[in-house]
Design a protein that fits this description.
single chain, 433 residues, mainly alpha, Glycosyltransferase, globular, binds (2R)-2,3-dihydroxypropanoic acid
Length: 433
């Protein structure tokens, strides 16, 4: 196990670029929001200064309105599409003057990442001092979400692009694509020169992705226009879980710091409303799990994915709801011939075990489920998630995503997407503690 840990550390050190980390070489050559958060958790175990710098750089990209972008383009490179020239963040009057970025965000992990850094730290006083210096930026980011991404004042925030979800090409989005008919774009893909096309989204899917960005750009990335016009407007259980978990972390950390009663009060208000609406609106009683809601077309998206189980991580479900989630997970995703946890329902005809978020196992979701299951006392299943995560990495390497079918591991080539992928390394280090 020590060998695996050392390898994980060398992956992180290799992807470190003097102030931030790339998710992996070539395929993702910039800084990504939620990747950075998970990476900081890994670094916190053996190099706290790098963990702190990773977060500082991420927060330094914050816009004037509190928004934090999903990609920060620190360098010029033509190995990634769509790059800064397509996204044109400077169209927004709110954008950072210092960094070029995208005009969309990613799951807001920063709050709980700060708390994890504190949990891991061997010098709690110094780490709390660091947190004190950055925490208001994270609070400001949450304020941005609740004031700009919740048009009906429900306590649930929307995402306006599949890339904001983090689960980029999930089959759930097929339901949205069927409501759209974007023009055919002419562009050169870069991802498929680094990774086999069978493991990546299709050209037609990219047309949809680019079209939504063009609509936002035509309105200078103004939130009120996006809410009015974006064909993609979704309340995502994973995204809102990350925000709710981070709310709680901010409450806990502000309590430790002291003298922040107003912010604690505001966070508690957001939190109470969010958890109530989450359970009322996103829990599907017939399926027994949490699902996504399509706010643009006013309809639930009734599919089961690993995101459906993620609310365990933020203590959102009741005991009964948690039991239901675990039942569905074990029945559909957890047979003996499967590694936990496929990213999409393996019994669905939309399941594809090799294609990015259409089925493969992802280490960050496993990490979320591991802690979520432990929260609710499902210790054995949590241990199984941990064991499965270690096993797929040992067998395949530090890949971006993995086949969930055990049988396939006899034939090799079961790690997909980018290799030496930072968060697979970072979160393995954390799970091995
Ligand atoms: C990609 O390029 O596929 C990224 O995941 C977008 O965030």
């Amino acid at each position: 196990m020590e060998k695996l840990q050392n390898k994980a550390k060398s992956v992180l050190n290799k992807n470190w670029k003097d102030g931030f980390s790339v998710p992996c070489a070539n395929l993702y050559p910039f800084q990504w929001f939620w990747d950075s958060g998970f990476i900081a958790i890994g670094f916190a175990h053996f190099d706290m200064p790098k963990a702190e710098k990773e977060i500082e750089t991420l927060l330094d990209s914050q816009w004037d309105n509190g928004f934090i972008p999903h990609i920060i383009f620190h360098t010029e490179t033509d190995s990634y599409f769509p790059g800064p020239d397509f996204h044109q963040s400077d169209l927004s009057s709110q954008a950072s003057k210092k960094y070029k970025s995208t005009g969309m965000t990613q799951p807001p992990v920063t709050g709980f990442v700060l708390q994890d850094m504190y949990r891991i730290s061997k010098d709690k006083k110094a780490t709390l001092k660091f947190i004190e210096g950055v925490i208001d930026k994270v609070y400001f980011n949450h304020k941005y979400f609740y004031e700009n991404r919740d048009p009906k004042n429900e306590g649930l925030v929307y995402i306006y692009h599949n890339w904001e979800s983090g689960t980029d090409n999930s089959p759930i989005w097929d339901d949205i694509w069927s409501t759209m008919d974007p023009p055919e774009y002419s562009f050169v893909r870069r991802d498929t020169s680094h990774v086999d096309a069978s493991q990546r989204p299709s050209k037609r899917e990219y047309d949809h992705y680019l079209h939504i960005i063009d609509i936002a750009k035509a309105h200078q990335y103004r939130d009120e226009k996006i809410a009015e016009l974006s064909p993609f407007l979704v309340q995502d259980p994973l995204f809102n879980t990350m925000l709710i978990k981070s709310n709680q972390s901010l409450i806990d950390l502000y309590q430790l710091i002291g003298n922040n009663e107003d912010k604690i009060q505001q966070l508690k208000e957001w939190q109470d409303k969010a958890i109530k609406s989450f359970n009322e609106k996103l829990f599907d009683k017939d399926l027994g799990v949490y699902i996504h809601y399509d706010l643009r077309n006013e309809k639930p998206l009734r599919h089961i994915s690993s995101s459906s189980f993620s609310p365990l991580f933020a203590n959102i479900p009741s005991k009964e709801q948690a039991a239901s989630l675990v039942n569905v997970m074990m029945e559909k995703f957890g047979n003996d011939d499967q590694y936990l946890c496929a990213s999409f329902d393996p019994t669905s005809e939309r399941f594809n075990p090799k294609k990015y978020w259409r089925g493969p196992v992802w280490v960050n979701l496993n990490w979320i489920l591991y802690y979520g299951l432990k929260n609710y006392g499902y210790v054995d299943i949590a241990q199984r998630v941990k064991k499965d995560t270690i096993e797929i990495i040992e067998k395949a390497g530090f890949y971006e995503y993995f086949d969930s079918r055990k049988e396939e591991y006899k034939n090799g080539n079961t790690g997909y997407g980018g290799n030496d992928f930072s968060w697979s390394a970072a979160l393995l280090i954390d799970m091995l503690q």
